[in-house]
Amino acid sequence: MLKCQIVCVVFCALLLESSIALNCYQCSGSDPKEPFQCNEWLTSDIDIKPEPCDNVYGAKYCIKHIGRFEGGIGAKRFCSSLDLGNYCNYVQQPGDILNYRTCVYTCTGDGCNLATTAKPSYAWILIGSFVWKFVHQLAR
Fold first, then answer.
1. Burial bucket for residue 61 (CB in 10 Å: 0-12, 13-18, 19+)
2. CATH architecture of the domain covering 2-128
3. Helix or strand or coil: residue 136?
4. Signal sequence: where (predicted)?
């Protein structure tokens, strides 16, 4: 029974560690050094990877902002401690002739701001299944 409890504690500690260290895609389409790396749809030919959100205190969310910002049109991905929600608006700034659609998508989980929807992590489901089977074998 003690072995079963130890395995459960270790497994829970692994889950806790993975939830604390959030990694998000962090880029801006207005970056003059790499203007084409951060667009609405990140494809397999990009060089950016999810990065730790250590620079944002209490980061729990990854954000994807598409539309008009910083004087241009494009995408921006970043970490946030606030849930900014999921919405789209049409905005017109002073001097603009056209209305521009801007959208904000908020998600939780490592690298979830790749696209507009988060993908489930099948790795954790598989690991959990093996741990569950192992724990039940120890309990016998």
1. buried
2. Ribbon (2.10)
3. helix
4. 1-21
